[in-house]
Amino acid sequence: MKGCGPLEPEDSGRRDMDHASSDEEHDVRNIWTYGHRVGALLGLLVVLAMPAAPLWALDIVNLNLLNGISCTLPDPGDGHQCRVRDRIALLLQHIVAAGCPDLVTLEENVTQAFVPQRTAAGTLVIVGPLDDTVARIEEGLPILAAACGFAYEVVFDPAARRGTPTLGRGIDEEIILTRYPVLASEVMLLYSPLAPFFFRHVLYARIAHPLGPLDVFTTHLAAHSDLATVACGFKDPRLPASFTAPDCPTPTCGAHDTVRECQAKQVAAFVEARHQGPEPAIIAGDFNAEPDSKEYREFTGRDWLDSHRATGHRECEVRTGENCTAGRSDKHLRDLESPTLHQHKRIDFIFVVPPRAGAPYPCVLQAPDGAEGTHSGLFAARPNPFAPTCGAAPLPICWPSDHSGNAATLHCPGPRHNLHDDSTGAGPERVIDRASGSP
Q: In sequence order, what DSSP letters do the residues of 43-60 get, joined into one string?
């Protein structure tokens, strides 16, 4: 693994990180359900998808991968982590079909081999051995490299690696795949009333993008299972007597905030502290909060753009599942093996911090234009398009996750000698500027 320089962390909750190169070759023949045919299909997809994305565009896709832990509970028909190997194979196909984006952010990765979980009856059981999803993704990187023509670099917190005895980690982790080199990376732990047994966090990387140093953040905020809606500072009586839940982290948060609202404030403050330079910044993830919630407004209230709304997409349609990102069950395989959307809320976002006022070049969010490749909207939001049919094994699985993902393309023209095209690309566009926060 290759080290990266520190960014002067201010407290023990922030950790400088190593990032792994994807240069190593792996034998992946036994990973994918479809064997050697996957590589050939990915190669065909990239030929179709790549020309639509100008080299000077910034493309990103985001997905909550689903750790699949609940599907490993000792109940009939759940499958192993909801067919995690098939789902990761399908994810790689979607990445290539999206034109091999510059950045891929993935939440809810699991690296622990054994994890305690409660059954529907409330009994505490240990589930495992679990597949290490980060290792599985890394084993698939040579397939992506062959299809995309470049090797993705991995940004992941070493403290969450399998075999590292870090309490509270390795159950729900973020990972960044980047086409361009990593200048620095860091993780910040977020407030949790379940600490030190479980943490949420935000993963940060500064990327050496051709347009300039680019700051990228990805996170997964609290759910009901880790007390998202209780008051900040809540003392959970389930914690062993020898442990004391942390106090509400003032002055960022107060007792009037919920746990998740506090985490949103922490993420926003961290972005503001780390983001440097005139280039835009990206915050992607599963925020477990719907549009116009207090958590959502913590970001949009700073004139940061929701890429979905900013490019004119409609809101989530509960009746049909269109434009929604969550709703499928993570407890069983039925929804994942059905071509029906089964989605009913939008809680996953890519927020864009516009270029600073006075930046020499505007940025443009690219809306759909019918071309192949990455555009702002949803990602992996159609049932398996790479197989004639999908369903229960032995058929290919229909979805890579219980979530649908997000996609965004920004055109940020740099100096003319850096460009390979004189235009800003075809299709509807929205110019973004921090000074106004609007077209």
A: HHHHHHHGGGS-TTEEEE
Tell me how far apart the alpha carbons of residues 363 and 60 are, in angstroms, rounded to a whole number. Answer: 14
In the beta sheet, which residues pair with residue 201?
189
β-bridge mates for residue 189, sequence order = 201
For residue 199, the model assigns a pLDDT of 92
For residues 430 and 439, what is the distance between their CA atoms, to the nearest angstrom? 6
Of the candidates 350, 354, 374, 366, the one whose C-alpha atom is nearest the C-alpha of residue 411 is: 366
- The count of residues in the chain is 439
Q: What pTM was computed for the model?
A: 0.84
Instruction: Give the Cα separation of 424 and 416 in Å (integer).
Output: 12
Q: Domains along the chain?
A: 24-432 (3.60.10.10)
pLDDT means over runs of 10, the chain (439 residues): 36 52 36 41 42 63 96 76 97 97 98 87 86 98 98 98 94 97 98 93 96 94 96 87 89 97 98 91 98 98 96 96 97 96 98 80 69 74 98 97 96 52 35 38
DSSP 324: -
Q: What is the pLDDT of residue 336?
A: 97
Return the percent helix, strand and coil in the chain, to nearest 5. Answer: 20, 25, 55
DSSP 41: H
The angle that helices 84-97 and 133-148 make with each other, rounded to 10 degrees, is 30
Contact assessment for residue 35 and residue 86, using Cβ atoms and an 8 Å cutoff: no
SS3 191: coil
User: Which pLDDT score, from 0 to 100, does residue 414 have?
Assistant: 59
Nearby residues of 437 by Cβ (< 8 Å), 6 or more positions away = 303, 305, 354
Rg (alpha carbons) of the chain, rounded to whole number: 21
DSSP state of 418: G
Question: What pLDDT sits at residue 35?
Answer: 39
DSSP letters spanning 209-277: ETTEEEEEEEEE---GGGTTTSBTT---TTS-TT--PPPP-TTT--TTSBHHHHHHHHHHHHHHHH--S
